[in-house]
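lol forgot to send this yesterday, sorry. struct tokens for the thing we talked abt
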């Protein structure tokens, strides 16, 4: 089965026109040099600043994981997060960021993770009922709506599934109607969602171990990792956006791919009906989805120590743009890199190169705190949807889809599909 997989048409470094570091903060076809698809580093000067674009797997492992403290988030990236959300984990750096991560850690522990599956089951069942009534649907809208529904119950609610009220539904619709690349506008609408959480007294239903439960307390959250009231509010907005945008986009791509491979979809449905786990297959499928369209396609870091990459010496003070999108499509690392191939990540006895690594959630001190939550949500939601519905994407419709990169890698148009309810 041939699956259409849109890609970016990256341009050579000689065609780039970078004037400030702000020019590279967003992934665009004219901001990432195409040389990264075949070599590990590209160097340029922006003003008087050395800037290195990196797709070398060993260097990325050092920067994002092994010694991430020596390569902290760049201030320009932090300012962008602050502009969108305020003083949240996306809008802070250094000790403030570490304190916030410690305070928010209970949200991503085992007791909360165990709630993802029951909430995801109910939310996905409601989604299947809602969308199977229509002849044709946008999988992006379905997936983002479902991801937001789960986040609303898990992180901004009582920890069990609660259908959104009519007022919340209106906020959901406003959010879903916005262009996918309008992150600031999305954050503004999500602030309205958090305001409704407060106005409706829903915050009072939130378990006490969740810091958001203290969102109306002027003193904020106490303890050895305190949060101010403003920080709690900002992180509530940040959590809502992460669930809606990052997990929702990944789910949309996964459902769209399955819609192009009805044979694989039917096989997984039969296995589900026979009581056979399809978790390994879905982990492989979403690993391949995140290889091609990573939720965190790049990361801007500041070098605080020297690093040697290939023939380049990266000095302290240099800016480093880590490019997982390019690494994931390097022709010398991934055979036929633009082809969707679930078998790349299936558990087999076939040895894989240690360089065949993916970095969908960044890593180290700036890693996505919700990655375990995202995996459970993706698997649970997909199991329910393919058990209840057959997703069909027409080849001619799929072939029209391109990419609209920005903070995320979004499709440039709706991901249209038919959703056929299984009797």
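and heres what i got for the seq, position by position
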């Amino acid at each position: 089965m041939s699956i259409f997989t849109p890609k970016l048409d990256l341009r050579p470094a000689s065609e780039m026109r970078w004037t400030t570091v702000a020019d590279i903060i967003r992934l665009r076809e004219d901001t990432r040099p195409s040389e990264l698809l075949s070599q590990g580093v590209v160097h340029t000067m922006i003003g008087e600043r050395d800037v290195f674009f990196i797709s070398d797997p060993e260097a990325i492992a050092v920067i994002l994981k092994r010694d991430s403290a020596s390569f902290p988030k760049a201030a320009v990236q932090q300012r962008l997060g602050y502009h969108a959300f305020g003083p949240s984990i996306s809008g802070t750096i250094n000790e403030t960021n570490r304190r916030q991560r410690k305070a928010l850690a209970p949200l991503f522990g085992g007791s909360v993770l165990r709630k993802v599956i029951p909430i995801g089951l109910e939310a996905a069942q409601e989604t299947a009922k809602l969308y199977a009534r229509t002849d044709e649907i946008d999988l992006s809208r379905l997936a983002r709506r479902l991801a937001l529904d789960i986040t609303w119950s898990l992180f901004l609610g009582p920890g069990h599934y609660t259908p959104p009220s009519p007022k919340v539904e209106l906020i959901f619709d406003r959010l879903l109607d916005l262009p996918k690349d309008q992150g600031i506008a999305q954050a503004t609408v999500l602030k309205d969602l958090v305001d409704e959480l407060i106005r409706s007294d829903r915050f009072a239903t939130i378990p006490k171990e969740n810091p958001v439960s203290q969102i109306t307390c002027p003193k904020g959250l106490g303890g050895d990792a305190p949060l101010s009231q403003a920080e709690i509010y900002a992180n509530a907005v940040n959590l809502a956006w992460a669930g809606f945008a990052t997990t929702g986009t990944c789910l949309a791509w996964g459902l769209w791919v399955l819609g192009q491979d009805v044979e694989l979809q039917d096989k997984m449905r039969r296995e589900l009906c026979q009581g056979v786990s399809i978790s390994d297959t879905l982990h492989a499928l979403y690993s391949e989805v995140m290889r091609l369209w990573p939720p965190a396609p790049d990361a801007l870091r500041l070098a605080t120590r020297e690093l040697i990459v290939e023939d380049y010496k990266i000095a302290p003070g240099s800016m480093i743009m880590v490019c997982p999108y390019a690494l994931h499509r390097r022709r010398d690392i991934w055979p036929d890199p633009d082809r969707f191939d679930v078998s790349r990540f299936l558990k087999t006895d076939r040895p894989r190169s240690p360089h065949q690594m993916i970095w969908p959630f960044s890593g180290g001190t700036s890693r996505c705190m919700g990655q375990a939550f995202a995996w459970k949500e993706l698997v649970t939601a997909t199991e329910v949807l393919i058990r209840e519905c057959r997703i069909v994407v027409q080849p001619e419709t799929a072939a029209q889809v391109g990419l609209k990169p920005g903070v995320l890698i979004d499709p440039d148009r709706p991901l249209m599909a038919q959703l056929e309810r299984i009797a």
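The first strand starts at residue 41 and ends at 46. anyway ping me if u want another try
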